[in-house]
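quick q for whoever's on today - can somebody do inverse folding on this one?? i tried earlier but teh output was garbage lol. C-alpha coordinates:
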Protein backbone atom coordinates (compact mmCIF):
# COMPACT_ATOMS: atom_id res chain seq x y z
CA UNK A 1 0.00 0.00 0.00
CA UNK A 2 2.05 2.95 1.21
CA UNK A 3 5.67 3.48 1.96
CA UNK A 4 6.47 5.01 5.33
CA UNK A 5 8.01 8.08 3.70
CA UNK A 6 4.60 9.10 2.33
CA UNK A 7 2.47 8.45 5.42
CA UNK A 8 2.34 9.27 9.09
CA UNK A 9 0.93 6.80 11.57
CA UNK A 10 -2.08 7.89 13.62
CA UNK A 11 -2.77 6.60 17.16
CA UNK A 12 -5.55 4.11 17.85
CA UNK A 13 -8.01 4.38 20.69
CA UNK A 14 -8.31 1.47 23.08
CA UNK A 15 -9.20 -1.19 22.26
CA UNK A 16 -7.29 -1.12 18.99
CA UNK A 17 -6.94 -4.25 16.94
CA UNK A 18 -3.26 -5.05 16.57
CA UNK A 19 -3.91 -6.02 12.97
CA UNK A 20 -5.11 -2.50 12.04
CA UNK A 21 -3.10 0.70 11.72
CA UNK A 22 -4.06 4.20 10.64
CA UNK A 23 -2.15 6.50 8.35
CA UNK A 24 -2.51 10.05 7.09
CA UNK A 25 -1.30 10.58 3.54
CA UNK A 26 -0.38 14.11 2.56
CA UNK A 27 1.36 13.77 -0.81
CA UNK A 28 0.41 12.89 -4.38
CA UNK A 29 2.88 9.99 -4.15
CA UNK A 30 1.14 8.66 -1.03
CA UNK A 31 -2.22 8.97 -2.74
CA UNK A 32 -0.96 7.17 -5.85
CA UNK A 33 0.24 4.27 -3.69
CA UNK A 34 -3.42 3.58 -2.83
CA UNK A 35 -4.60 3.02 -6.39
CA UNK A 36 -4.80 -0.81 -6.27
CA UNK A 37 -6.46 -1.00 -2.86
CA UNK A 38 -8.81 1.85 -3.75
CA UNK A 39 -9.99 0.04 -6.90
CA UNK A 40 -10.64 -3.09 -4.84
CA UNK A 41 -12.64 -1.13 -2.23
CA UNK A 42 -14.77 0.77 -4.75
CA UNK A 43 -15.49 -1.74 -7.53
CA UNK A 44 -19.23 -1.30 -7.17
CA UNK A 45 -19.36 2.27 -5.86
CA UNK A 46 -20.31 5.56 -7.51
CA UNK A 47 -17.84 7.38 -9.80
CA UNK A 48 -17.10 10.05 -7.16
CA UNK A 49 -15.91 7.36 -4.74
CA UNK A 50 -13.39 6.00 -7.25
CA UNK A 51 -9.64 6.66 -7.09
CA UNK A 52 -9.63 8.70 -10.32
CA UNK A 53 -12.11 11.19 -8.84
CA UNK A 54 -10.08 11.78 -5.70
CA UNK A 55 -6.85 11.95 -7.65
CA UNK A 56 -8.30 14.57 -10.03
CA UNK A 57 -9.74 16.58 -7.12
CA UNK A 58 -6.45 16.48 -5.25
CA UNK A 59 -4.65 17.80 -8.33
CA UNK A 60 -7.11 20.56 -9.14
CA UNK A 61 -8.97 21.53 -5.96
CA UNK A 62 -6.66 20.86 -3.04
CA UNK A 63 -3.25 22.41 -2.77
CA UNK A 64 -0.56 19.84 -2.17
CA UNK A 65 0.05 20.94 1.41
CA UNK A 66 -3.63 20.46 2.25
CA UNK A 67 -4.18 16.84 1.19
CA UNK A 68 -5.19 14.57 4.12
CA UNK A 69 -6.21 11.09 3.02
CA UNK A 70 -6.83 9.01 6.14
CA UNK A 71 -6.49 5.25 5.73
CA UNK A 72 -6.92 2.18 7.88
CA UNK A 73 -4.66 -0.69 6.87
CA UNK A 74 -4.71 -4.37 7.69
CA UNK A 75 -1.26 -5.69 6.93
CA UNK A 76 -0.23 -4.03 3.68
CA UNK A 77 -3.80 -3.51 2.42
CA UNK A 78 -5.88 -0.36 2.84
CA UNK A 79 -9.27 -1.47 4.19
CA UNK A 80 -10.84 1.99 4.75
CA UNK A 81 -10.21 5.36 3.10
CA UNK A 82 -11.35 8.92 3.84
CA UNK A 83 -10.32 11.19 0.93
CA UNK A 84 -10.01 14.58 2.63
CA UNK A 85 -8.24 17.91 2.39
CA UNK A 86 -7.78 20.79 4.83
CA UNK A 87 -9.74 23.94 3.98
CA UNK A 88 -7.96 26.93 5.51
CA UNK A 89 -9.70 30.01 6.79
CA UNK A 90 -10.85 28.68 10.12
CA UNK A 91 -8.49 28.64 13.09
CA UNK A 92 -7.56 24.95 12.75
CA UNK A 93 -8.63 24.40 9.19
CA UNK A 94 -11.56 22.14 8.41
CA UNK A 95 -11.31 18.61 7.04
CA UNK A 96 -13.54 18.19 3.97
CA UNK A 97 -14.12 15.40 1.48
CA UNK A 98 -12.31 16.07 -1.78
CA UNK A 99 -14.53 17.90 -4.27
CA UNK A 100 -17.84 17.62 -2.41
CA UNK A 101 -18.31 21.24 -1.31
CA UNK A 102 -17.42 22.68 -4.70
CA UNK A 103 -19.18 20.16 -6.94
CA UNK A 104 -22.06 19.06 -4.71
CA UNK A 105 -21.85 15.37 -5.57
CA UNK A 106 -22.84 12.83 -2.88
CA UNK A 107 -19.83 10.89 -1.62
CA UNK A 108 -19.17 8.37 1.13
CA UNK A 109 -16.13 7.03 2.96
CA UNK A 110 -15.11 3.56 1.82
CA UNK A 111 -14.40 0.55 4.03
CA UNK A 112 -14.41 -3.22 3.72
CA UNK A 113 -16.22 -3.83 7.02
CA UNK A 114 -17.69 -2.21 10.13
CA UNK A 115 -14.50 -2.59 12.20
CA UNK A 116 -12.41 -0.78 9.58
CA UNK A 117 -15.00 1.98 9.26
CA UNK A 118 -15.12 2.44 13.04
CA UNK A 119 -11.33 2.81 13.17
CA UNK A 120 -11.46 5.30 10.31
CA UNK A 121 -14.17 7.37 12.04
CA UNK A 122 -12.25 7.24 15.31
CA UNK A 123 -9.21 8.66 13.49
CA UNK A 124 -11.37 11.49 12.13
CA UNK A 125 -12.67 12.32 15.60
CA UNK A 126 -9.17 12.17 17.10
CA UNK A 127 -7.90 14.63 14.47
CA UNK A 128 -9.60 17.30 16.58
CA UNK A 129 -10.50 19.41 13.56
CA UNK A 130 -13.89 20.49 12.32
CA UNK A 131 -15.15 17.91 9.81
CA UNK A 132 -17.44 18.58 6.84
CA UNK A 133 -18.57 15.45 5.04
CA UNK A 134 -21.10 17.29 2.90
CA UNK A 135 -23.52 15.06 1.07
CA UNK A 136 -23.26 11.64 2.67
CA UNK A 137 -25.81 9.17 1.29
CA UNK A 138 -28.79 8.75 3.62
CA UNK A 139 -28.00 5.06 4.10
CA UNK A 140 -24.33 5.65 4.95
CA UNK A 141 -23.02 3.71 7.98
CA UNK A 142 -20.56 6.58 8.57
CA UNK A 143 -23.03 8.56 10.67
CA UNK A 144 -23.48 5.75 13.21
CA UNK A 145 -19.73 5.03 13.26
CA UNK A 146 -18.93 8.70 13.94
CA UNK A 147 -21.49 8.83 16.76
CA UNK A 148 -19.89 5.74 18.30
CA UNK A 149 -16.46 7.42 18.15
CA UNK A 150 -17.58 10.58 19.92
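ok took a stab at it. sequence:
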Amino acid sequence: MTSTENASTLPCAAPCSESLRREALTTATGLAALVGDWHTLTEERTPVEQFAWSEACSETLARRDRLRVITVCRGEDAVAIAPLFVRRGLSLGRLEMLGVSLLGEPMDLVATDAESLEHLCDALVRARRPLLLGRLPESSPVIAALKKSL
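fwiw Strands lie at 7-10, 20-25, 67-74, 77-87, 94-97, 110-111, 131-132. also The domain at 4-149 is CATH 3.40.630 (Aminopeptidase). so keep that in mind when u check it
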